[in-house]
Amino acid sequence: MNTTDNKRTDVIKDPMGQAISDFHRTGKAAKLRVLSSMFYEDEIPVATLFRSFNKMPIQERKAIEMCRGKVLDVGAGSGCHSIVLMERGLDVVAIDISQLSVDVMKERGINALNVNFFDETFVEKFDTLLFAMNGIGIVGKIENLGAFFRSARRLLAPGGQLLLDSSDISYIFTDDDGGMDIDLAAGYYGEIDYAMRYKNIKGEPFDWLYIDFDTLAMYAEEHGFKCEKCIDGEHYDYLARLTLNEKETV
Asked: Closest Cα partner for 240 from 129, 159, 148, 81?
């Protein structure tokens, strides 16, 4: 298969990117369905991926207000956070593994790159690494947190910060008596398998991580980062700020 065929296959398997592209060009999109072996089918309203600052949840608004210096917007999607940051005068680079999403962001005037956060050849330095909309979910599984923190260390400028929001989804597994109905042998309860479908496009399955604050703080400390909770959201979610400990160097 030639390079052109490979690119075409990638686009075909990119339901979220296609939904973002359709909405950007026409102002409407079909249902973007979210599938999981653990939950009933759900839906992401595509319009919310283009939301303005005032429509963002409190933890995202707080994160934007805390951004400083040169910002890397990781998993930027349509670029809604990047646009707000740019309007505030910040230097922003947006990255996403979806070429369709990157194309949309470029059309919206964003400096966007088709780059994987874990790509060791990406070595630019940033004052703020922003992971909005449960952006730490890209870690997939707890065991990948080491690679996440190594990449963060590679990309952080001296004195830099990580801003990320996530959720403690243990409430999903709480029974009527307040106990936890969790199979401890099955791994961390925040590790979820997902796939997306848009029109006739079904993406490849992927792992996504929701992590409670205490677990995040524990792993951060193990890898030389200080972790502080900045704000609680409205539904078991939170915003955290991570910085390298004073004895650590970037």
From this structure: 129
pTM of the model: 0.91
Whether the Cβ atoms of residue 163 and residue 67 lie closer than 8 Å to each other: yes
Q: Is 238 left (phi over 0), alpha (psi -120 to 50) or beta?
A: beta
Distance of CA 30 to the CA centre of its chain: 22
Query: What is the per-residue pLDDT across 45-62, written as a single tens digit (0 to 9) for each?
Result: 999 999 999 999 999 999
For residue 44, the SS3 value is strand
| DSSP one-letter string for 78-134 | T-HHHHHHHHTT-EEEEE-S-HHHHHHHHHTT--EE---TT-TT----EEEEEETTT
Residue pair 166/184 in contact (Cβ under 8 Å)? The answer is no
Strand 126-131's sheet: what is its strand order?
112-113, 91-95, 70-74, 126-131, 156-167, 237-244, 225-232
